[in-house]
């Protein structure tokens, strides 16, 4: 069975290196994932199936996913608003679908999520939210940030936070490209 342009892996056909990735993805999201993680046969949706197709890089991506999801100094609200900023800029339906609920759970309002879907800064954003949004947009549109944008971001998140934001934007930009190029379909809602 195909999942976009690649094979859709079922749990019973996984080699040991693929199984380690699969188990890591399930461990990250737990027994009640916040989005449709797998189908009724246990096949993973989204970028996770692609990780199984190339386990050498897939394992590294899975570890990076765990790191940007739980091992940064960034507040969950900031992390989710940045992910939605990437999803909107790259028109990544899977990222948008998976993270809009996470964003609401992290404290973003429906109006803020709607503004982000239009690639706009919500009027309700405070200085830290706006700094993260502007920094993410600069990276996405210019692949760089001005000295003023960097300084404003560092003022709110520190040096480590700036590096974490760059990594977060890069990771989700990579996932958006991966899913677009492989024509990964959205899971049913």
Kindly describe this structure.
Pfam families: CMD. It comes from Streptomonospora algeriensis. This is Carboxymuconolactone decarboxylase family protein. A hairpin with a 2-residue loop joins strand 1 and strand 2. The chain has 189 residues and is mostly helical. Strands 1-2 form a two-stranded antiparallel ribbon. The longest helix has 35 residues. The protein is built from 8 helices and 2 strands; from the N terminus they run E-E-H-H-H-H-H-H-H-H. The relative contact order is 0.15.
Task: Determine the fraction of residues in helical runs and give it as a percent range.
Answer: 55-70%
First CA to last CA: what distance?
A: 20 Å
Q: Looking at the structure, what is the overall shape?
A: globular
Structural class given helices, strands, pairing? Answer: mainly alpha
- The Cα radius of gyration reads 17 Å
Unreliable runs, pLDDT <50, ≥5 residues? none
* Strand arrangement in the largest pleated sheet: 1-2
Major sheet size, sense and barrel closure = 2 strands, antiparallel
**N-to-C SSE string, H for helix and E for strand:** EEHHHHHHHH
